[in-house]
Request: fold
Amino acid sequence: MVYEITNSKNILAIFGAWEETIIWSCLQGIMGKVYADHLSNPTAAMAVLGDFTFFAGIPNEELVSFKPDWCQQNFMIMVPQNEEWQNAILNFYGSKAHIVSRYAMKKEPDVFDKERLKQAVSSLPKEYELSMIDEPLYALCKSEAWSADLVSQFPNYEMYRNLGLGVVLRKDHVLLSGASSYSRYSGGIEIEIDTNPAYRRRGFAYICGAKLILECLKRNLYPSWDAQNKFSVRLAEKLGYHYSHTYTAIEIWDYSFST
Reply:
């Protein structure tokens, strides 16, 4: 059996000191959900938020094969706590599973150079507009496939207004780039940055990222960064972050279909 966990105290030890803010969001009951193999004495657990699932504890095939009813997407990024979990995922999903590397950045609250970030924001030419995401811009982000993940984990603007934070860059009211909270946890956000494919390599992501980090610092929120690829690592380092380590994730395609 798989059980939804509403009181995380029994599973905190299973996830241990894993420094992933998506796990923290789930354990804190802010966003996402946690599932386990037992309500009162769990040995295995999974934290699910958006396109991410983190597995911890003793590998359990029932958890690996479990897809919550509310997960409607066909794609999931599964992150195993260890090699045993990795093998369990690969064995169950077979050809649907693709191993990838992701890159964790260090969480260093005092590392950011505010003056440098302000200079980045001020470097934006006057014909462009940098705006905090309000209700109309929230709707605009949702209307385009490339920008949807800037707000996708907030099903309505009220939730985004209460928990989210983001900025978008436009020219002539056309959305070009943005930086926002993919998720929220107590004390910070997990950053999502996206740029319209037709406008990449122009420094827009850097400017949006700089603005969002400054806004987080004003609010005493930590802007956590997890890099999907080495381009994201370089952008993060340009903004002041430092590389921590590479870890294994498994992308599951056709997640909507059972094996």
